[in-house]
Amino acid sequence: MSSLITLSILAILVLYLGLYKAKNALLPATLLGLAGALVLAVLEWNGGAQPIYSGMMLFDNFAIAFTTICIFSTMLILLISKDYFESISEHVAEYYTLILFSLAGILVMVSYHNLTMLFIGVEIMSVSLYILAGIRKDDFKSNEAALKYFLMGAFSTGFLLFGITLLYGATGTFDLTQIRDYVIANPTGISPLFYTGITLLIIGLCFKVGAAPFHFWTPDVYEGSPTLITAFMSTVVKTAGFAAFLRLFLMCFAPLHDFWMPALLVISLLTLFVGNVTALYQHSFKRMLAFSSISHVGYMLFAIVALGVNSSNSVFIYATAYSIASIVAFAVLILVKRQTGADNFDSFNGLAKKNPFIAFTLTVAMLSLAGIPLTAGFIGKFMMFSTALAEYHIWLVILAVLNAVIGIFYYLRVIVAMYFKGAERNEIQSSSYFNFVLGFSALITVVIGVYPGFISSLF
Amino acid sequence: MINLVWLVPLFPLIGFLINGLGRNTLSKSVIGLTGCLAVLASFIVSLGIFIELNASNTKSFIVPLFDWISAGTVKIPFSFMVDPLSALMLLIVTGIGFLIHLYSTGYMSHDAGFGKFFSYLNLFIFFMLLLVLGSNYVIMFIGWEGVGLCSYLLIGFWYTNSSYASAAKKAFIMNRIGDLGFLIAVFLIFTTFNSVEFAVIFPQAASMLAGDRALIIITSLLFVGAIGKSAQLPLFTWLPDAMAGPTPVSALIHAATMVTAGIYMIARSNILFTLAPQTLHVIAIVGLATLLLAATIAVTQNDIKKVLAYSTVSQLGYMFLGLGVGAYTGAFFHVITHAFFKALLFLGAGSVIHAMSNEQDMRNMGGLKKKLPVTFLTMMIGTIAIAGLPPFSGFFSKDEILAHVYEHNQLFWVLGVIGAVFTSFYMFRMMFLTFNGSFRGTTAQEHHLHESPSSMTIPLIVLAVLSVIGGFIGIPEIFGGGHWLQNFLSPVFAVSAGKMPHLTLDHSTEFILMAVSVAGALGAMLFAYQKYVKKGEVPAEDRIERGTLARLSYNKYYIDEIYASLITRPLDSLSGFFHKVVDKKGIDGLVNGFGKGAIEASKSFRLLQSGMVGFYIFMMVFGIVALLVYSMYKI
Questions:
Q1: Domain count, chain B
Q2: By mean pLDDT, which of A290-294, B263-267, B486-490 is the weakest?
Q3: Which residue on chain B is closest to A223 by alpha carbon?
Q4: InterPro entries of this UniProt entry (chain B) (predicted)?
């Protein structure tokens, strides 16, 4: 809880730092504040959490774990943002502030215990993101991204809100515990309002995480937004969306599994195929990453389809592996784009000769995204598939494995470009911040891949 | 000393490592010394073990080294078993192994791969010792596979010659067929007895009924393994080809030690086989058929090593015949004596080949008696021993087997004696062609003729002495002997002996049997003498037309050709079919088609992402409607 308060105060503080032109203090102050929030969150681990603020929030281990990974990923992203923000805009402080506000919304999303808090969290996060997507005011694509995101986001928020309303209509409460009690107490006589509410919530949440057929905003927004914001959206925001999704279903709707499971199963498969198959034919690395993020949503939905005791753990590991690898991918993309001005696969040609370290870390990240053993991505996929198999979704897993095979093609494409294609290019100069983030992320990816025990038994 | 048994395989392993790593840097003398000393050290330890075991009252020791596989209920320790059977095998392997290492320092002295050769040879000894010492089937299997590997490496030692390389492959593949049988047998043993330890299995098995189905299947599969390793019908064709390796290898691996592994394994598992009389019957028939087939092939071969190779196959057939009639001691007795005289004969042949500048065709030899006196004398002793003439070693072991066979089945005995007659004939034929008459090679060869160096003749002399006196360890009681070997081995075969009828031949019958086989061998010898010394016949050139029987024998009954057309060629065309149709068109087509399909799908999926928000919202609404319809239906 204290980390949420820290974050909110930090955001305001950073805004004032910008006002007084203390540009150089922005990044250190933000990182320091985030580190403080991280420590405060971790300190509450196993604290026997009870709902607080009249049952609005519950800072349990689930919330702490996802808070930790979200803050941690944000720190990694901010570490590579030093020159980036300054190079694309004058309003640097607003960047930090907006990201921090968005993060505050995310913290609410992972720790809500009341549906109104879910809605508020989603909105705090989303509104900040609408602005961030369009923060390059002079850039047409950035504006387009912001507008599309806002339009469709507003559209989907309506469903989320309507769903919450229907649940309230059926149960007379927003409180998660009471809703669960309602479900348990009425095994047969559950109101149709309640069912429809669940369906509408699925629609709203699927939009937020970008599951097909509610994914259409993702590629366009990801492509148009500044790359770092894309990185933030596709890692931290996605993780938070899943945490919120999972929290709701785990706490309230588990007994109604038979009702919503088939729908989510179809959505999950559709997402996998749309994401993977479309990613195949992309020429832009950034757009490929956008579609690949859609396909990863498909894998993560497994945890909800096969809801059980292992679900939180699977999503946590998967999201961690995916976030870290994606951050590396986006970081290298920023470097390459800065040098060549393009973000297609060809601009990676010959990178391994000039920048072996960068190429190596990107290789590790790609292998992790593809789910090759000895990387964190493999452990994530393994957990997901075994969760699904535990519920006897054999066909789901077979189709998912097929998709994983398709995925290998486009992930390896960039490795092939880096190692096997020659091109005239100069060495990329990367700052030590970059090198740290790249090396550290690659290291974590391999460590989790080799020794998953220390993270897989958290819950 | 018995507790130090782990030293026995350790020395050759160290020798292998030193010679293997230093094969290009160490000098030949260092390599030779390391290789020989490693095996000599093993021999000395083995000797100590043997003496201690002989004096001890307990006849079976298990020496655990470490827990090797421990998974759930499966526990396989890495431990060694010392009992009379393994102690004797240790002496044979390290003793003859040492002599052959010594011989190799002379024989291989001009070879560029000297270091490699000695490292392989040491590795072979290491694996052979594992095979012999293992206290369970799994360790035995490690050794079993390991010696197969070394055999492959050494047959193909001169791998630049493509026919040698294919001989190596042939040996390996034929052995693999047998190994599969062995492996499945080990699995079945585990499922049946829940253990692979000899000490656990055999007492359990002893309480089973004779003819138990599980036992019959297990023993049949074990026998398949033995067929591969010990070159019996139908998997024997690799052994004659294995003569492509250097001659010391033929002596060590393909005559004295490795090929007897199958007999060792059956003797080790004797109780299983005793309780599976049907399998024993099959073993006897296979052994008999192999010994006759190989003996009749050997009479027309002209390559000195090929004659010995077929003779080895034939003698192995005798051992299996012995096993098949339950004469475990007799069969193992023959293993020992055969190791002496066959190693001697091969090394002698090597000495001849060495002197003849790598000539192996006996038609180009002749009259070598004077030039190679030591080789001639020692080889003659070996020949007399293998022909079964008293009192040399082969007489005792072969007649022990034949006596058991007579009691078991008199027809088998007749055929066995015919085999013995053939043996005597082809061996003396080989001797006369090589050493008598006049020299038939080129003048350059004649000029180069010389007796081998002492590093080669000393092993010959030692082995010759052993071939003469080796039989005295098993003098049967009709000659007033106590049959020391039988007493020594009795703990190993005690349970089996209790379940089998005892030998009840009276002395006069036994004498007659011996007299018949000795007379037959002598007659064959005289016939050979008449034919090749008196008349001075030389086998015909390859292109000369032969009579039907001679042609069959000369061409090895066309067995290789039959295998080629029955098995190799159909397999090749099946493989071609799988390669061209199933793999290229079917599987590759499926995979590539899948890939192409995915790319095509990608092209059209991509168009969905049109950039038009209106279209996006339309698609979303489509999804929303579908979901709502679904929930209406579901509620």
A1: 3
A2: B486-490
A3: B611
A4: NADHpl_OxRdtase_5_subgr (IPR018393), ND/Mrp_TM (IPR001750), NU5C-like (IPR003945), Proton_antipo_N (IPR001516)
194-223 in chain A: CB under 8 A from chain B:
195-196, 198-199, 202-203, 207, 212-214, 216-217, 219-220
Q: What is the pLDDT of residue B449?
A: 80
Contacts of B39 (CB under 8 A, 6+ apart): B11, B12, B15, B94, B97, B98, B101, B122, B125
Closest Cβ–Cβ partner in B611, B623, B628 for A214: B623
Neighbours of A353 (CB within 10 A): 14
Does position A89 have pLDDT exceeding 90, yes or no?
Answer: no
pTM of the model: 0.68
**B24 has pLDDT over 90:** no
Does residue B364 share a domain with residue B298? yes
A193 touches chain B (CB under 8 A): no
User: Averaged over A349-355, what is the pLDDT?
Assistant: 90
Q: A277 at the B interface (CB within 8 A)?
A: yes
- Contact (CB<8Å) B631/A220: no
In chain A, which residues have their Cβ closer than 8 Å to the Cβ of B616? 148, 152, 216-217
In single-letter form, the type of residue at position A444 comes to I
The answer to whether residue B568 is domain-embedded is no
The answer to whether residue B561 sits within a structural domain is no
Tell me which of B538 and A341 has the higher pLDDT. Answer: A341
Residue B601 sits in which domain range?
Answer: 576-634
Contacts of residue A455, defined as CB under 8 A and 6 or more positions apart, other chains included, come to: A316, A317, A320, A448
CB contact under 8 A, B598 and A406: yes
Chain B residues closer than 8 Å to A410 by CB: none
- For residue B469, give the 3-state DSSP assignment: helix
A158 touches chain B (CB under 8 A): no
Q: Please report which confidence band the pLDDT of residue B435 belongs to, taking 50, 70 and 90 as the band edges.
A: confident
**A406 close contact with B: CB closer than 8 A:** yes
**Tens digit of each residue's pLDDT (9 = 90 or more) over B534-568:** 887 777 777 777 777 777 777 778 888 888 888 88
**Mean local confidence (pLDDT), B318-341:** 91
**ipTM of model:** 0.90
Q: Let me know whether B622 and B517 are in one domain.
A: no
Tell me if chain A has a CB within 8 Å of the CB of B622: yes
Is B430 inside a domain boundary? yes
* Closest approach of B77 to chain A, Cα-based (Å): 29
Interface check for A302 against chain B (CB to CB < 8 A): the answer is: no
Q: What is the pLDDT of residue A197?
A: 93
What's A445-458 look like in SS3? HHHHHHCCHHHHCC
Window 546-585 of B, Cβ < 8 Å to A: none
Distance from CA of B629 to the nearest CA of A (A): 10
In a domain, B362, yes or no: yes
Domain boundary residue, one of B83, B102, B135: B135
Residues B549 and B453 reside in one and the same domain: yes
Q: Do A219 and B609 touch (CB under 8 A)?
A: yes
Cross-chain Cβ contact B624/A148 below 8 Å:
no
Per the omega criterion (within 30 degrees of 0), is the bond before B391 cis? yes
Q: Which residue of A has its CA nearest to B617?
A: A152
Q: Quick one: pLDDT at residue A369?
A: 95
Indicate the residue among B86, B112, B135 that finishes a domain: B135
Exposure of A427 in the CB half-sphere (CA atoms within 13 A): 8
What's the pLDDT score for residue A414? 93
pLDDT band at residue B503 using 50, 70 and 90 as cut-offs: low
User: What DSSP state is assigned to residue A283?
Assistant: -
CB within 8 Å of chain A, chain B residues 486-525? none
Burial (Cβ within 10 Å: 0-12, 13-18, ≥19) of residue B64:
exposed
Average pLDDT for residues B275-289, to the nearest whole number?
Answer: 92
What are the structural domain ranges in chain A?
A: 2-456
- CA–CA gap between residue A282 and residue A275 (Å, rounded): 11
Residues B179, B222 within the same domain: yes
Mean pLDDT, chain B, as a whole number?
88
Mean pLDDT of A143-163: 92
If asked whether residues B433 and B346 sit together in one domain, one would say yes
Q: Is B80 left (phi over 0), alpha (psi -120 to 50) or beta?
A: beta
